[in-house]
Amino acid sequence: MNFIKTSTALLLLICFAACAPKIYKADNFESSKETVKTVAILPFSVAITNRKLPKGTTAAMLRDTEVKTGYEIQNRAYSWLLQRSKNYTVSFQDVDRTNALLKAANISMDDLSLKDKAELCKILQVDAVLSGKATMSKPMSEGAAVALGLLVGAWGATNQTTTSLTIHDTSSSLLWKYDYNASGSVGSSPENLANALMRNASKKFPYKTSK
Length: 211
Hints:
This protein is α/β, with parallel strands linked by helices.
């Protein structure tokens, strides 16, 4: 019995360790607090991977879902951080303004990953940008789930979801990176994905006020 309890505890420990987030913080991060006061949250880059598109679904339809999901996660990330802004030393640019400035500069969702972060900081008139990526593998439990997902934002079961958050300043330097892996149904909707990510990441967000 003790052997079983010990083995179970060890298995759980290994599982939690494997799922634990990975965090990178630059050596000059503490000094960056003197200059980083405003942060813009970019639309998230979302990829839904599936070996074969279900019947009735085109690559364009899937891409449209990815783009819409990227904007929704951006909004939810902003809401999470804004609600906890009193705990941070930085302020967050309204995402509507962020997206309006990107549109005025003719920067589409597909262009974001190709743009230098320093250039984006200048365009958005902020001290740093927070960008995010999310990759969902096998998001559909059956073909009909995709068509349904395009309408209601739910894709069925997700085997694994890999997400990351990064912060770059006006010199394009990577200041902070947060990687988070989840399995099960966490990626079954943009809301679930954003909540799972930000519930964890907001606690580790580096620009915290000293207590």
